[in-house]
Write a structure and sequence with these properties.
Elements (H helix, E strand, L loop, with lengths): L1 E7 L6 H14 L5 E4 L13 E2 L6 H6 L7 H14 L1 H8 L6 E5 L5 H4 L3 H11 L2 E10 L6 H18 L3 E6 L6 H5 L1 H5 L3 H11 L1 H5 L1 H13 L6 E2 L5 H14 L26
Parallel strand pairs: 1-4, 1-5, 2-3, 2-4, 5-6, 6-7
């Protein structure tokens, strides 16, 4: 069995930083986690990718081609579709190892996950290649301190969950960048009350008053899907990183098929059993 995290989230949510952080944490723990860069527009990241989509196709190829002439968004979509049309390249790059653990650092174009089938097709390929996978959906912590942003981010995460159809872990990134006051409100960020946060929208804007029933309906959807639990990520806290990785490992059942150790300690010699005479 092989294992994978599909690291998704809006642009600027810290996906590449997350991948680099987990890779370094694993190396310090004598464990191997490799990263696959699937962002054809990436310019810089802090990890050495095992596979890099830019070796197959770069966004400039789609934007500068005389026949295509795509913009940035269209170019990203074209590159991802081109990758899926050439799955043998990706399969060859990934190899046929056993017990591989990969992070797929995906582009920040949210429509690739929310209403297109691109990522779902990628998931089907990975499952065919014996990968046990889950989605790690990153949101900047600032989305939890404002009702409107909370609504937008949570509904995006819900849309990804429904569209991709994989086990789903929501992560609040950039917790280390929050102010001291915001960090003191950590509990309300991790398990926010949608009605409380959405209620702020009702009292602060004419739109909120006019569409109160719609707001309440959205709040019920969020509660019904139990998608209002988030895991914090402070990239400067090794214990926090270890706890998050353990949670994700449990979700994808990493290590459950490992050989059981039959000897964890030294047995006493037969001569020692009788003691002194």
């Amino acid at each position: 069995m092989r294992y994978a995290q599909l690291v998704l989230g809006p642009a600027g949510s810290g996906k590449s930083t997350y991948c680099a952080t987990l890779q370094k944490h694993a190396a310090d723990d004598k464990r191997t986690i490799d990263v696959v860069n699937l962002d054809p527009a990436a310019e810089y990241f802090d990890y050495q990718p095992l596979v890099d989509i830019r070796e197959l196709i770069h966004i400039d190829d789609a934007m500068e081609d005389e026949d295509l002439r795509f913009g940035p968004n269209g170019g990203l979509i074209f590159c991802m579709e081109y990758l899926l049309e050439n799955p043998e390249w990706l399969e060859e790059q990934l190899g046929e190892g056993d017990d591989d653990y990969l992070l797929f650092d995906c582009p920040g174009q949210i429509e690739l996950y929310t209403h297109m089938t691109t990522v779902r097709q990628l998931v089907e390929l990975l499952q065919r290649w014996n990968f046990q996978a889950c989605v790690v959906f990153l949101l900047d912590a600032q989305f939890m301190i404002d009702g409107a942003k909370f609504l937008s981010g949570t509904m995006a995460a819900l849309s990804v969950m429904v569209n991709v159809e994989l086990p789903h872990v929501n992560v609040l990134s950039k917790m280390d960048l929050l102010s001291k006051t915001a960090r003191n409100q950590l509990d309300s960020y991790l398990e926010p009350d949608p009605h409380s946060l959405l209620g702020e929208m009702e009292t602060k804007s004419k739109w909120g008053v006019k569409y109160r029933r719609l707001t309440e309906a959205i709040g019920r959807i969020i509660e019904d899907y139990s998608l209002v639990r988030f895991y914090p990520l402070n990239v400067r806290d090794e214990e926090n990183i270890a706890d998050l990785l353990l949670t994700i490992d449990n979700v994808i059942q990493f290590g459950e098929d490992s050989d059981v150790k039959t000897r964890d300690f030294d047995y006493p010699d037969d001569d020692d059993e009788g003691g002194d005479t």
